[in-house]
Queue: 4 jobs
Job 1
Amino acid sequence: MTSDDLDPPPPYSEIVKSNAIEHLPPEYADIERYISIMVESFGGRVRKIWAPDLNGMYKFEIAGSYRFCDNIQRHHRKNQIYFIVDPKNKTYYQMCHDPQCFGFRSVTRNIIIKRQVPVNEKENISDDQCLI
C-alpha cells in the first residue's frame, strides 16, 4: 500500500468540530444553565462545550468580557478562560489560556442547583404533605 492509496486526513477545522458539542446531555441541563448564567452576568457567554474526556469532564470555553482568573484575581485583558466541569460530582474549576497562568488550576467549586417547585405542583400539595 502506498501513500497514494490512503485518503488524505480531514482538515483541522473538521477535527475540531467533531469534538465540540452544542449542549450537555439533558440530564445535565441545570449545570449548563448554571455556568451560562454565571458568565452572562458579567458579559460573557459559553462559546463552545467540548465532548467529555475519559474522566467524564466537559470543557466550557468562555467568550466575551468574562475573563476573570482566580490566579491573578482580576479579568485578563485579552486571553480567555475556560471551565472544566464534572457533571457527576456537580463541580467545576477554572483554567485560562494566558501564558502567564500556564498550568494554573483554580480550587474546585460546587455547582449549587436550586430546585424550584413549579406553580402547578404547589397547588397539588395538601396539608398532610407539608413538612414542619
Job 2
Amino acid sequence: MLFMVIERFRDNDMLPVYEQVRERGRSLPDGLEYVDSWIEANFSRCFQLMRCDDPRLIQEWILGWRGCGATFEVVPVATSKETQAVVAAYLESSPGNRRPNSNPTRRN
C-alpha cells in the first residue's frame, strides 16, 4: 500500500527535523519503504510517499519522531495507473457510464 505522509513543521522550521535525519537517518522500521519526498516552497510541509503492507509500521515510525517539532497526517493513496484500471470499467460500461451490473434504481 502507498501512503502520502504530510509532515507539518512547527513555525515553518524544518531544521530540527533535518538535524534528526542527519544524526539518526530516517529511522524506518523494517517493512516501511521511503519512496520520495517533496518540500513546500515556504518550508511549512513535506510530502513523503511511503510504501508498506502494514499501516502500524507508519505509526511506529511517527512515534519515533515525537518531540522533533513536526506533526503528521497519513493519507492512503493509489497510483494514477491503479486508479485508471478501476475507473476503466465505468468508462466502458452501459449508457450513462453506470457501473457494470449495477441497478440504476437502487441506492447504496
Job 3
Amino acid sequence: MDRLRAELSELRARLDKSFSPDTALNGLQSDVPSAGHCAAAAAIVWETLGGSLVSTNIGGMSHWFNRIQVDNQLLDLDITGDQFGYPAVQIKPAEELYPYTRERSPDELNDETLHRAALLARRAGFFKIAEALEKRRQQIQSRSAKSLLSY
C-alpha cells in the first residue's frame, strides 16, 4: 500500500501544477486547486492504474474517484478529496472512503470531461495518458455523429 500511496502522491503532485479553471468543471475557480477536477483526475487515475470509476454525492455534488484491486483487497482511491476538506490523497478499503457509492462505466465520461482530462494530463506531462483519453473522446464523438446520421 505504501508504493500505491507514493504513486498517487506523485501523480497528484504533478496534477497540482496543472490544475486550472479551464481544466475544472464549468471553469470553477476556488482556493482549492483540485476543486472541479474530480472526474478528470479519476479518468487519469483510471487510465494509469485501471480498475473502476466510482462516484458518490458529497454536499449535494457528484464526486468521482477510483476503485482498484490490489492483491486480494478492493481499494477506493481519491486524489481530489481536499476540495471537500479531506486529505488530497486517500486510500481505504472499498465502501469505507465515502458512503453510498456506485461504480460508473467509462462510457459515462462525457466529451467535456475527457477533453478536460486530456488537457490536464498533457499539462502534467502524462502524454500517453492524454493520448488515450483523447482517443476515447474521439470514439465518443464518432458514435454521436453516427447516431445523428441514423435519424
Job 4
Amino acid sequence: MLRSFKFVGALALAATAACSSDSTAPSAKSADLTLAGGATASSTNNVVVTESDVARQIEDTPPTRSWVFYTRVASPATGAFVTGPSTPPLGSGSFEMNTPLGTDKGTLFNYDHVGTRLADINSIGYSTYRDPASTAPDVQLPSVNIEVDFNGPAVAGGFTSLVFEPVYNPDQGAIQSGVWQTWNGVPGIWWSTRPINGCAVSPCYQSWSAIVGANPDATILGGFGVNQGSGSGGLIAATDALKLGVNGDRWTYNFEPFRTPLTKDDCKDGGWQNVRAADGSSFRNQGQCIKYVNETLHQD
C-alpha cells in the first residue's frame, strides 16, 4: 500500500489550526501532508532515516517536513542520530534522546501515515536501549505515541494521543539497562491522553484491540513516532527499528547517523560523496564506493 499526502507549508497549516493542550498536536483536523520532496512511502523496504531527513522544531508548531524532532522551549533535551549503542537491531546506528530534567520532552514524529485507519493496523513495534548512565526510574523508556482522531474524520473533534509504554506491558519482559529490547504494540496495552470511547476518565490502560473495538472509525490524525519526557528526567535512551504494519504492508524505520550504499548506482553521479562505509569512513572516489558494494554486498 502506497500513501502520498500533499505537503502544506507551516503557515497554511497554522491558518486552519485547531487548538489543543496536548504537545505537538496537529494543526488541522484533516492534515494534508507529503513525504519530504514529494516521495512516497515504501511498504516493502527498510526506510533509512538520518539527520538530513528531519526538521527540528519547538513543540506545538505545525510540521514542516515528514519527519520532525520536537523539543520544548529552552529545554536541554537532545536527540541525535548516533552510531550504536552496542549493536542496534538494524544497521549501525539509532536515535538517542537525553532528557536531563523532569520537565524535558523530545518527540521524533513521522507524518506519512495520516489518514490510516487504526482498524487496518496489524503491527506496531520498536526497539529500545536504556543507557546504564541513566538516573531516571528503572521503569522509564521511550514510548510510542500516535496522534489520533478517535471518532473519525466525519465527526468534529476527537483528538487524542495514544501511548504505548513497556512498563505497562510486563508480559513482554522486564526493562533492562545496557541491552537492546524489542517491544510490540499490537498486541499490547496502551493509554489515551484524553477521554475516548471506552474510557470516560483518562488514563485508561487498555489493549489495542479494545481501543480499536470501541473506536472503529479512528484514524491517525498527525504524528506517529517515539517520545521521551514529561517525567523521564535523567533518562538517556536510544530507539531503532520503528515499525508499522497496515493491512499486511510494513514500514520499518532504520535510524542511522549516515547512509551506506546498497547498490552500485548509489555510488554513481557523485552519490559516493553522500554515503559512507558501515564503519563511518568516507569514500575517496566512485571506484572505492563501488568496490565496497561489490565486496560487502557481493554485487557483480
